[in-house]
Design goal:
This protein is of the alpha/beta class. It is built from 13 helices and 8 strands.
């Protein structure tokens, strides 16, 4: 299921743009034709398709028009000028579901999203997450929304406030949003290529997806293989792609026998290519993988990726 019914190329159809921005299709068309506010692409059938940048721009323009600015005066301003007009050191604001809510906009977004998940309103939940993805920079989305969201889901699941079906729905939404962002991320010419996956048999891919998104946001050329990639396929992908860094994620603890085998495979991999491994704190694999860089927090991964590029 694609979040907010994205098209296969990761673009937004008009009906979704209208739902996310609060603008009617007629207004979007007028702002495009008369004022050049956005330049959507066209399908073979001449239907408009919008990028996440277009959606973010339209949402910001609507906010400024609601504040009293004339669309004819601001439609062609670049994003920096629009953000300056929007006034606020925090940049683009995330719309609240509850005007009386307290806390940061990101915290309120997570609460509103989970309230929709709790009542199985999948469409409303997906809309809020997709809107955040359109309005926020990818790195800020990951650090300020996705990670707090996943932590909150884990806490509520352990407390019995969310069920397995709720958790699966959240995973589907987050996977869809992050997967789309990773596929569409722009990277610097000549950027280092990073291969991201999980070891064979390890199906929990959220850590790998978040790592891929952080790498993409730092300008790396990311090759995301999805979860549970066999060792021979990793080796083949490395040889063919020229990737010089591998990011792996492991969440669950395997049996003692499998733990030893996995540690050996990772130590061997690290002799061929720089290997970084994301693990929960106190995971028993950490002391067994000499030569592998172990990271326990996404903030540490982000800092390491930034330092590596300098």
């Amino acid at each position: 299921m694609k979040p907010c019914t994205l098209t296969d190329d990761g673009l937004y159809p008009m009906r979704v743009v209208a739902r996310l921005t609060g603008l009617s299709p007629d207004v979007v068309r007028v702002w495009q034709r008369r004022y050049g506010a956005v330049l959507p692409t066209r399908t073979d059938g001449n239907a408009r398709r919008f990028t996440a940048t277009d959606v973010r721009r339209l949402a910001l323009l609507k906010e400024l028009v609601d504040q009293g600015h004339a669309i004819m005066d601001i439609a062609r301003l670049d994003e920096a000028a629009l953000l300056a007009l929007e006034a606020g050191p925090e940049g683009v604001s995330i719309p609240d579901a509850d005007p009386c809510a307290t806390g940061s906009p990101e915290h309120r977004l997570v609460d509103a999203y989970l309230a929709a998940i709790q009542r199985f309103d999948a469409s409303a939940a997906a809309d809020r997450l997709a809107l955040a993805a359109a309005l926020m920079r990818p790195r800020e989305l990951v650090l300020n929304v996705v990670l707090p969201l996943l932590r909150e889901v884990g806490e509520r699941w352990h407390a019995g406030r969310l069920g397995v079906a709720h958790e699966h729905l959240v995973t589907t939404h987050v996977r869809g949003v992050l997967g789309t962002l990773v596929r569409r991320a722009a990277f610097d010419r000549g950027a280092e290529r990073v291969l991201v996956t999980t070891p064979e048999g390890h199906l929990h891919e959220m850590g790998a997806l978040v790592g891929a998104m952080l790498a993409a946001s730092r300008g790396y050329d990311v090759l995301y293989l999805g979860p549970s990639t066999p060792e021979r396929e990793v080796a083949s992908a490395l040889a063919e792609s020229g990737a010089s860094l591998v990011l792996l994620s492991v969440v669950l603890t395997p049996s003692a026998t499998e733990l030893a085998r996995l540690a050996q495979r990772l130590r061997t991999l690290a002799t061929r290519v720089e290997t970084w491994l994301g693990l929960p704190p106190e995971h028993p694999l950490a002391p067994l993988v000499t030569g592998v860089r172990v990271l326990h927090r996404f903030e540490d991964l982000d800092a390491a990726l930034l330092a590596r590029r300098r």
